[in-house]
Amino acid sequence: MKLKSAIILVLAWIILSTCGCPTNQRSANKVMLPPDIAGTWKARKGLWKIVLSPDGTVSLAHVDMGNVEVRPNKTTRVEMKDGQFSAYKAGDCIVEYTPATRELYVSVEMEHIHVVYLDNVIDGNSIDRFVGPVSEYGKEWTTEWIKVFDYGPRFPQDPNDIYPEPLIFDKVDN
Asked: Least C-beta-crowded within 10 Å: which of 79, 96, 131, 146?
């Protein structure tokens, strides 16, 4: 059993390290997105929505943790039902696109998540990565989604639970 856990952990590390933070060289090679790639992508299941600008950046993302709309490198404050405020600080959002294969990669980093409700508090962070091909006509993006999070000791992520999940996005008119 320990061998299986070790193998899963190593595979997750390999996947995450190859999709990690961009180097300056990657950033310098940014590709402009064609019109059928730029725009709003909404997940068929869940709450995810990602808006891609033609310049190859994420202009906003609607994240599943807290059902909140965030913008890269900005903090979003949300009033809770009890009148308290939660805060979501987004970090870098990376976009890469390979025209030859139509493969689209998007990474959404939440540098800090602070959720308060009544006497409960969640402090943590997360990185969500989506990678996969966009259909020939630019209407469907079939991704493998990897979510890595640290929401503190009350909500730990088991390293054995880090694996890609399929998630399909559809191009929508906002």
From this structure: 79
